[in-house]
Amino acid sequence: MSQQHTISDIKGSFELRNGVKMPYLGLGTYQSDNDQEVVDAVKSALQLGYRHIDTAAAYKNEEGVGQGIRESGIDRSEIFLVTKVWNTDQGYDETLKAFDASLKRLGVDYLDLYLIHWPVAGKYKETWRALEYLYAQKKIRAIGVSNFLKHHLEDLMSECKVVPMVNQMEFHPYLVQQDLIDFCTSNGIQYESWSPFMQGKVFELDICADLAKKYNKSVAQIILRYNLQKGIVAIPKSVHAKRIASNADIFDFELSVADITFLDGLETGERSGPDPDNFNF
User: Fold this and answer.
1) Which of 32, 124, 155, 207 shows its CA 20 to 30 Å from the CA of 244?
2) Alpha-carbon distances of 138 from 58, 65, 131, 180, rounded to whole Å
3) Could you report the per-residue pLDDT of 116-140, keeping only the tens digit for each?
């Protein structure tokens, strides 16, 4: 598996279908407070060499993320910045307004990637039309979705002009969804993971502890390397500078194909987060 994906260093990337390079390791900011906490996390990550920052309107910390970017001293053009349109803002006109509001909060004039956060029934196609419009206007370098299962993607793709370039999904050894990964890969949709640590549960798995010993790495490092070798973009969330640094220390070892297959085999279908087929927010 690792042979298909060149994984070099923290600034390395996977190429999206339209040629845009998406850094394969990013900083997630879910549940990071919109104050000095998120500002410092973003600054730490950028100063350590991260070039991909993921937020969302729903996280209510876009202002802090934008401030962290500005204070980092790293040029905006070097940073891959992602945010998402929230469920209550879905629909064509509403999405255009939500996009402008996100840009304003972030203090930027374009996004590298904009995602539909959840597949809100009866709304996501109109939302997607708005993303296609913004993409055509060059206000976003790439557009994608989050939490879309195969049938959501097929439904969207039956009518869309631009196929989503990214699908950000819950992904970890208990929820691999290889069929969905394969579907995305065959349609040129970059897979990206959220909750790679199963909201902490992965640290309790004996098998992960065994692999950590075998490779002389932390469990978090094993899991992030597993993501990258499967060709999946990872955005681990942390607000601690030491952990942000440790999460990026994954470029001096490689998991064997057998160990990747073993991790894949832990699949139980267990979700840490909501079910994309059954959510009410």
Assistant:
1) 207
2) 24, 22, 11, 29
3) 999 999 999 999 999 999 999 999 9
pTM over the 0.70 mark: yes
Could you tell me which residues are annotated as the binding site? 117
- Nearest in space to 190 (alpha carbons), one of 172, 165, 222: 165
146-170 residues labelled b (16+ CB within 10 A) or e (exposed)? bbbbeebbebbeeebebebbbbbbb
Instruction: Read off the amino acid at residue 51.
Output: R
Rounded to the nearest 10 degrees, how much is the dihedral formed by the CA atoms of 1, 236, 17, 8? -50
| Annotated binding-site positions for substrate | 117
DSSP E strands, 51-207:
52-54, 80-85, 113-116, 143-146, 166-170, 190-194
Cα separation, 230 vs 228, in Å, equals 5
d(CA 259, CA 213): 13
What number of CA atoms fall less than 13 Å from residue 48's CA on the CB side?
24
CB atoms within 10 A of CB 217: 20
Contacts of 237 (CB under 8 A, 6+ apart): 27, 28, 29, 30, 31, 32
DSSP structure class, residue 278: B
Question: Is the separation of the CB atoms in 255 and 224 below 8 Å?
Answer: no
Please pick, among 24, 59, 124, 135, the residue that the annotation labels catalytic: 59
Classify domain 11-264 by CATH architecture. Alpha-Beta Barrel (3.20)
pLDDT, tens digit, 9 for 90 and up, residues 52-99: 999 999 999 999 999 999 999 999 999 999 999 999 999 999 999 999
* Catalytic residue flag (residue 59): yes
With 50 as the cut, is the pLDDT of residue 3 above it? Answer: no
